[in-house]
Design the sequence.
């Protein structure tokens, strides 16, 4: 119990000290708002514009969510195919790994061109693509990297490939799926967000931040950044909750 | 002057809490210069804890410990002992001779002196041709010999060993026991040796210290009367089996507590 | 020998997979709907016509064209210099990120209280789109003055690279520093080694297998940060700016933007290549199992 309080109190006090330092730095050194806005000003802007920030957040959030769901489903489906055909696996894995090194989101510039200008599809497409590869690589790993003793045991029971898949490979892949989701959920928000920098509809968080800065309303821009952070945290928290719910029955 | 002096040492983990464990209670032990002493007993009897108290890796809850008439903490600072563990614990990123040089580096020896000593130690453990290989290119037995060479590199008068041959196969193990006796004979090193194996303890030791758990304590000390010179024939001698039986019977007294000791396993096998 | 064969096989597979992507692209152009396809009233399928999806050969042919009519500067040269510019910014970001990341990791390994207080925020910082700060940080450029030092705009882009690079490096290094086996730590204690000696003789060498993958993530993070900063603010000179510019010309010349997109991909691969080389160098004397 004491340890738990300590676990919360230490980071909390670090956070409070940080905010206080930030606030006092802005006041003492009289920092210009274009450099750093004071936390109190940001919070003021946040409460004043709550409904507008909420609108922008829901636009970006919907794009992220749609892409996350579709990308996860496609990723899982494809990983089953890959675990069945090792040639395809060898073909796609190096591609997926090298995509990790590439700023893949620049494809939005191309995707925008493939759809009409008012479409949200390119952004969702982009999120899907990013999520797809994260899920694919991880789940495929979970399906193939099973303990050889387990497979040998199943073979000694004369189990079929389908049975081995259901009783060994799939359970083994579940933790990998959640590892992937914990990475993919924040990544989906970030991608949705960055996609807005490429033009198109100006209704999401990313566009609002740029336009507020262009108008020198930096505290307001920070307030939208705060909204973006909350959205990212919400996605991450949900992925953690999902994980703990599905793993509840499992022995530790 | 005795090599190791343990006077009324106790070690209690989590004192005053629900998970309190009396790892060692009121242990007295004297190890003489040049002596080979084994600590044997079931899991949880505190033999590794006792070794770590002597090494000053743990502080005793009460009592005092001396190594070569110094406090154990001074002995540690002076590198008066070398230590070897069940895992050879060689550093993957250092060559064999650089591994042996590690304690010398920490002592601030210069390069030529270190290299000369490493070469000398490699001769001692009969692996001179492996100086520039990396540990993972060696077999388990060879790695353990390098670990012994490392432990003896600074020529400490005392060697502390925690089940050093526990991970080796039986053939390698017997070979290593012979090598250890030869090396300690040549260097006149005192050894305190923790083991699970009765024949190993008897073959190596002048004295076998039998310990029992809950609370960890010394129940008996058996003098092994096999003489100073031991070789492969010793393993077939009548005296060998007589001593093994003596140790086994002393250990049997600890059996009653064995079952309950299993419950707190894990503390000892850190 | 075996190692060389495996590398050759992987490279071959990589090339085959690139060609498969090209083949799928071209195949879609043949069978896909010219004006996009609708499912349940939502246009999901992209348009397959030459304005939306140019032929791969058309994209490649653009490299040898001049950037603007009448100019003698060819597109390949422009893309190359843009990628080179962004590469330098990414390297600055990466090195700053490495310094901060490794420094934080050492601090957290040394003082448990710092780890307790800081680590939750580091983890949190990765779940929030810190990249949202890009336009803010870039707006410092030219305005912020510290003494006689005027904050250049490009430095803001590098700082964003640092933002995205330092976290994986800090976490990976921390995990690596704590990966030293208990017996090895005990051994160092038995030598009465100081904390600093243990750090340099044991913890850092033991951390290398953890730091290399962290550097890979950090390197790609640095590239992403720099390119996003360039795109969101139109910072001149880099590959991000080129992508935005060429994307605007897409109605007239849809193939042109691909030249810059490929340039960004090459940039990422070059950064990854740097880390891969250091990987081979650092892990050359390590057991082969752990190097995978």
Sequence:
């Amino acid at each position: 119990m004491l340890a738990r309080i300590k676990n919360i109190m230490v980071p909390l006090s670090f956070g409070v000290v940080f905010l206080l330092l930030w606030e006092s730095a802005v006041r003492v050194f009289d920092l210009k708002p274009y450099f750093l806005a004071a936390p109190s000003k940001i919070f003021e802007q946040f409460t004043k514009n709550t409904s507008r920030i909420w609108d922008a957040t829901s636009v970006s959030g919907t794009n992220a969510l749609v892409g996350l769901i579709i990308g996860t489903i496609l990723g899982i489906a494809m990983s089953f195919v890959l675990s069945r055909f090792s040639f395809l696996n060898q073909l796609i894995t190096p591609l997926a790994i090298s995509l990790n090194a590439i700023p893949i989101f620049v494809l939005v510039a191309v995707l925008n061109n493939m759809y009409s200008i008012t479409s949200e599809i390119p952004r969702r497409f982009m999120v899907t693509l990013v999520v797809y590869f994260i899920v694919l690589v991880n789940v495929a790993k979970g399906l193939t990297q099973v303990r050889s003793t387990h497979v040998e045991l199943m073979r000694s029971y004369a189990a079929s490939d389908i049975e081995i898949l259901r009783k060994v490979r799939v359970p083994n892949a579940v933790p990998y799926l959640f590892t992937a989701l914990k990475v993919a959920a924040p990544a989906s928000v970030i991608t949705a967000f960055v996609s807005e920098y490429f033009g198109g509809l100006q209704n999401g968080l990313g566009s609002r931040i740029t336009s507020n800065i262009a108008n020198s309303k930096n505290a307001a821009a920070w307030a939208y950044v705060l909204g973006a952070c909350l959205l990212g945290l919400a996605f991450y928290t949900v992925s953690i909750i999902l994980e703990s719910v599905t793993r509840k029955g499992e022995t530790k | 002057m005795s090599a190791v002096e343990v006077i009324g040492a106790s070690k209690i983990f989590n004192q005053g809490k629900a998970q309190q464990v009396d790892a060692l209670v009121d242990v007295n032990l004297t190890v003489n210069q040049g002596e080979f002493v084994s600590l044997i007993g079931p899991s949880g009897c505190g033999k590794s804890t006792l070794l770590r108290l002597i090494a000053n890796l743990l502080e005793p809850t009460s009592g005092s410990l001396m190594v070569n008439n110094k406090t154990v903490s001074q002995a540690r600072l002076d590198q008066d002992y070398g230590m070897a563990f069940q895992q050879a614990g060689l550093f993957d990123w250092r060559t064999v001779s650089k591994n042996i040089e590690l304690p010398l580096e920490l002592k601030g020896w210069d390069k030529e002196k270190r290299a000369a000593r490493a070469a000398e130690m490699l001769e001692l453990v009969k692996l001179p041709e492996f100086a520039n290989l990396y540990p993972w290119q060696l077999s388990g037995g060879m790695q353990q010999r390098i670990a012994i060479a490392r432990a003896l590199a600074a020529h400490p008068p005392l060697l502390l060993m925690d089940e050093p041959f526990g991970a080796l196969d039986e053939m390698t193990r017997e070979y290593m026991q012979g090598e250890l006796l030869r090396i300690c004979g040549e260097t006149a090193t005192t050894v305190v040796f923790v083991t699970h194996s009765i024949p190993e303890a008897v073959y190596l030791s002048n004295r076998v210290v039998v310990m029992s758990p809950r609370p960890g304590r010394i129940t008996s000390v058996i003098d092994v009367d096999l003489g100073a010179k031991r070789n492969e024939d010793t393993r077939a001698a009548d005296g060998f089996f007589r001593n093994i039986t003596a140790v086994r019977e002393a250990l049997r007294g600890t059996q009653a507590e064995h079952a309950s000791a299993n419950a707190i396993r894990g503390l000892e096998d850190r | 020998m075996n190692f060389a064969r495996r590398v050759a096989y992987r490279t071959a597979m990589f090339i085959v997979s690139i060609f498969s992507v090209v083949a799928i692209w071209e195949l879609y152009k043949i069978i896909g709907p010219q004006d996009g396809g609708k499912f349940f009233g939502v246009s999901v399928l992209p348009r397959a016509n030459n304005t939306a999806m140019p032929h791969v050969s058309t994209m490649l042919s653009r490299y040898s064209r001049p950037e603007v009519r009448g100019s003698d500067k060819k597109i390949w040269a422009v893309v190359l210099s843009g990628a080179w510019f962004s590469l330098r910014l990414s390297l600055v970001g990466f090195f700053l990120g490495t310094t901060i990341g490794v420094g934080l990791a050492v601090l957290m390994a040394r003082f448990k209280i710092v780890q307790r207080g800081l680590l939750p925020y580091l983890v949190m910082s990765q779940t929030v789109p810190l990249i949202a700060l890009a336009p803010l940080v870039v707006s410092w450029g030219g305005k912020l003055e510290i003494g006689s030092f005027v904050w250049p705009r490009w430095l803001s882009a590098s700082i964003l690279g640092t933002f995205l690079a330092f976290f994986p490096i800090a976490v990976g290094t921390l995990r690596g520093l704590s990966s030293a086996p208990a017996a090895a730590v005990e051994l160092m204690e038995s030598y009465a080694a100081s904390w600093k000696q243990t750090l340099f003789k044991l913890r850092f060498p033991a951390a290398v297998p953890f730091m290399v993958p962290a550097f890979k993530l950090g390197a790609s993070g640095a590239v992403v940060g720099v390119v996003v900063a360039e795109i969101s603010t139109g910072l001149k000179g880099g590959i991000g700016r080129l992508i935005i510019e060429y994307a605007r010309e897409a109605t007239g010349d849809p193939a042109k933007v691909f030249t810059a997109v490929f340039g960004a991909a090459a940039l990422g691969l070059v950064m990854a290549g740097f880390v891969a080389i250091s990987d081979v160098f650092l892990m050359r004397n390590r057991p082969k199992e752990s190097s995978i």
The radius of gyration of chain A is 23 Å. Residues 50 and 227 of chain A are 9 Å apart (CA to CA).
